[in-house]
Design brief:
By secondary structure, the protein is of the alpha/beta class. It has one domain: Rossmann fold. The chain has five helices and five strands, in the order βαβαβαβααβ. It has a five-stranded parallel beta sheet with strand order 3-2-1-4-5, with helices on both faces. Strand 2, helix 2 and strand 3 form a beta-alpha-beta unit. Helix 3 packs parallel to helix 5. The protein is globular, with a radius of gyration of 17 Å. It starts with a strand and ends with a strand. One of its GO terms (cellular component) is cytoplasm. Keywords: Cytoplasm. Pfam families: Usp (PF00582). It is found in: Cytoplasm. This is Universal stress protein.
Length: about 150
């Protein structure tokens, strides 16, 4: 295994996931990339009617929100790499559906291993929103290391 893709959110448990994945990478002398996916499902939902059928204001606001989220995510990933003593670790922020984008990036990057974490959501949240980690494990064509996390 020469390439390990570590998918992180910005929760406090992300450092545990990053550290575990990074330790595997060091032991295997593998290249690492930290990725974060901005789930755009809620960003582009129009919760009000545009004024006189012009929604340009909303589009501009959504772009600003995404840009802000990207900046925060990159900063978080870079600080995580620095925390692990590898400030030059590659980081990638992607916008889209987390399950799809994580699997797609891992494929495009030719990852040999994907590292993800689980999160303790409520039963109702899992029923209505699904469990991203379970979906990734089910759909992945490469090995997936799942780090159990309780928040």
């Amino acid at each position: 295994m020469k390439k390990i893709c570590i998918a992180l959110d910005t929760s406090p448990s992300a450092k545990k996931i990053a550290k575990t994945g990074f330790n595997y990478a060091k032991a295997l002398q593998a290249e690492v990339v930290f990725i974060h996916v901005i789930d755009n499902a809620g960003v582009y939902v129009n919760t009000y009617d545009p004024i006189m059928n012009y929604n340009g204001f909303l589009v501009n606001q959504n772009i600003k929100i995404v840009e802000s989220l990207e900046k925060e995510a990159k900063s978080f990933l870079n600080s995580t790499a620095k925390y692990l003593g590898e400030p030059t670790t590659e980081v990638k922020v992607i916008e889209g559906n987390p399950e799809y984008e994580i699997l797609n990036f891992a494929k495009e990057w030719s990852a040999d291993l994907l590292v993800i974490g689980t999160h303790s959501h409520s039963l109702l949240e899992d029923i209505f929103m699904g469990n991203i980690a379970a979906s990734i494990v089910k759909s992945s064509k490469i090995p997936v290391l799942v780090i159990p996390v309780k928040e």
